[in-house]
Amino acid sequence: MVKDVFSTTALALAGRATGFLIPFFIAIWFGAGRDTDVFFFVYGLILLMATVFGDTVGEVLIPFLAELKARGEKVSVYVGRLMVLGGLLVTAVVVLLCLAAKVFIPLVVRFSPSQMGLLFRLLAEMAPLVVLVSWVNVLMATLNAAKMFSLPAVSLSIRSVITLLMIYLFKGSLGVHSIVLGYVVGEGARLAVMLLKVTTVEGFPIGRDSFSWDPSLFRFLGVAFFRSGAMILNQVNQTVDRAMASWLVVGSVSVLHYAGRLTMVPILILTSGTMIPFVSHWSERFAREGLARLKRDVKKAAVAMAVASSVVAVLLILFSGPVVDLVLGHGAMKGSPLQLVRWAWVCYLLGLPFRLVSRVLLRVYIVLQRTRIVLFQAAAGAVLNVLFNWVLMQKLGVAGVALSTSAVALFSVFFWLWAFRVAGE
């Protein structure tokens, strides 16, 4: 497992390296203003839907595909059914959510009429990305279940490079719409590459059987449902954060996003190559050696993550000023917005160890396939996030919204420790 963790981490970082640059180039080319506020709000909504229909399925699907292989069944048939039937389901749900957004979004944000018009145009343009991401994650899970971590880990570079190219070429004529174009075209290219690789490994997944229902899909959907609900609530927290930041001064949504993206750098470095191998190897060892082995593995991983993330958080807080100036202090992003980004980033970093340890502890229940409690924890965290946001933003502004995220992360760690004690795990 250690070898898989280090190799996958290296490849994932290589794949995500260009992705890290996208928000910073957006900052340089577009700054922090009305259009970027709208774009990042829409991006948060799309990210929410993509996480529900993409990332969640990719994580939960791996043990199911492993079971199919153990029974000698053809994986490509199952994958094809998920892509066809799942794609139709995702498309229908996304259309309904976009229609509902026209009713509910004006109730929670305080954008001008022109900004609201731009918001709904961007939402319609970016909606196809959700379907593409869901297909890509099904294919990635297929390769991860086969212990082929390399291409899934590095594949983000395809989308990122194309996104940056599209923004550069069309930013003058399309404005923020060029960002949407880049993401959609880039994900389409990523889908083509993943589909080609899966075809060489398992065979082309789409066929006549892809349009027939498999009763075993019910069990998969049952496990995925609660995990998806938790992911929805986790992503809703980010959307709520952006919505409440829109109540503050102009540019606050963009400031929060830039600080959040800076925080994602150490998070991705420390987790990109760990979570999928953890779930894969822990599941295998749990099935073979039982709960005692799982407890030992989780304890070692949690302690290692706590130490590593604490060291990283302290160093980044100490050098937060120079780092923000180096990364964002160019082009249209100058002056007071930089200081706002810095303080928001520091507030995010205070909760970095708690966020990462919580992610490790949560995977225990993915392995055990007890996803109901994962949904319960996410629901409690979502309620606390709104409460903490409201209290802290009164005094700290946009930095208070970031500090609220750290406070919820601390709660999550205590919740999992309590849950383990109650369950005797």
Short description:
The protein has helices spanning 2-30, 34-70, 75-108, 113-126, 128-145, 150-154, 156-174, 177-202, 217-245, 252-271, 275-289, 291-318, 320-328, 336-350, 352-367, 372-396, 398-423. Helix content is 86%, strand content 0%.
Descriptive overview:
The protein has 425 residues and is mainly α. It is built from 17 helices and no strands. The protein has helices at residues 2-30, 34-70, 75-108, 113-126, 128-145, 150-154, 156-174, 177-202, 217-245, 252-271, 275-289, 291-318, 320-328, 336-350, 352-367, 372-396, 398-423. The longest helix has 37 residues, at 34-70. The two termini are 22 Å apart.
Key traits:
single chain; 425 residues; mainly alpha; 86% helix; 0% strand; globular
Rg for CA atoms: 21 Å
Main sheet: strands, sense, barrel: none
Quantity of strands, as a count: 0
The stretches of 5 or more residues where confidence is low (pLDDT under 50) are none
**Spatial separation of the terminal alpha carbons:** 22 Å
Mean pLDDT: 85
Please provide the ordered H/E string of secondary-structure elements: HHHHHHHHHHHHHHHHH
Total helices: the number is: 17
Q: In percent, how much strand structure appears in the residues?
A: under 5%
Structural class of the secondary structure composition? mainly alpha
Query: Into which percent range does the helicity of residues fall?
Result: over 70%
Q: Which of globular, elongated, flat, extended, rod-shaped describes the shape?
A: globular
